[in-house]
Amino acid sequence: TRTPIGRSGSQMQVPATQNPSSDANTQYDYAGVTWESDVRSNGSATGVTYGGRSGTYTKIGRVVICNFNFTLTNNGTGVGKCDVYGLPFTPSAEYYAGCNYAANLASMGGIPFGNCHTSGYCGLRQMSTAGAATDLTDTHVANTAGVFFSGYYVA
């Protein structure tokens, strides 16, 4: 019986501390953890309260696969575009996250999606049927809004 190097039984062993390798076939970084999203309007989280929020991610090498959701009880006092802060790792470029569920988003003219930025946040946006992308604002993300996003990006 042949046992692959770095395997114990049916589990792959990855070091607890990252040990970078120049060999593209060497897996040296893996993490899977929970995190909490932080909703802000125009950068402000003042007065934002949640009925619930959570997030999970798995990082394999530089690829981050993440999910986040939130249900607001108050969208706060911020005015302007809504973003989700607290991504587990900073994206290396712009990436997009799909919206799997949305409830109580007001005055929507399109399909919601997330736009993950190199500044470490995910902008909440919508795509119209004509193909125009616009920001979701505090007007769209009302006091009882709830969403679930999934996506991936390279850190």
Structure characterization notes:
The chain is mainly beta and 155 residues long. The protein contains no helices and twelve strands. Strands 3, 4, 5, 6, 7, 8, 9, 10, 11 and 12 form a ten-stranded antiparallel beta sheet that branches. The radius of gyration is 18 Å and the shape is globular. The relative contact order is 0.21.
Topology summary:
Blueprint: E1 7-8, E2 11-12, E3 30-35, E4 38-41, E5 48-60, E6 63-75, E7 82-85, E8 95-105, E9 110-116, E10 121-128, E11 133-135, E12 141-154
Antiparallel strand pairs: 1-2, 3-5, 4-7, 5-6, 6-12, 7-10, 8-9, 8-12, 9-10, 10-11
Write a concise keyword list for the protein shown above.
about 160 residues, single chain
Short description:
The chain is mainly beta. The chain has strands spanning 7-8, 11-12, 30-35, 38-41, 48-60, 63-75, 82-85, 95-105, 110-116, 121-128, 133-135, 141-154.
Helix content bin: under 10%
Could you state the order of secondary-structure elements as H and E?
Answer: EEEEEEEEEEEE
* Largest sheet report: 10 strands, antiparallel
- Our Rg estimate from Cα atoms comes to 18 Å
Mean pLDDT: 86
Secondary structure: number of strands: 12
What's the helix count?
Answer: 0
How far do the termini sit from each other?
38 Å
Q: Kindly estimate the percentage of residues that lie in beta strands according to DSSP.
A: over 45%
Shape call: globular
Helix/strand-derived class?
A: mainly beta
Indicate the low-confidence ranges by residue numbers: none
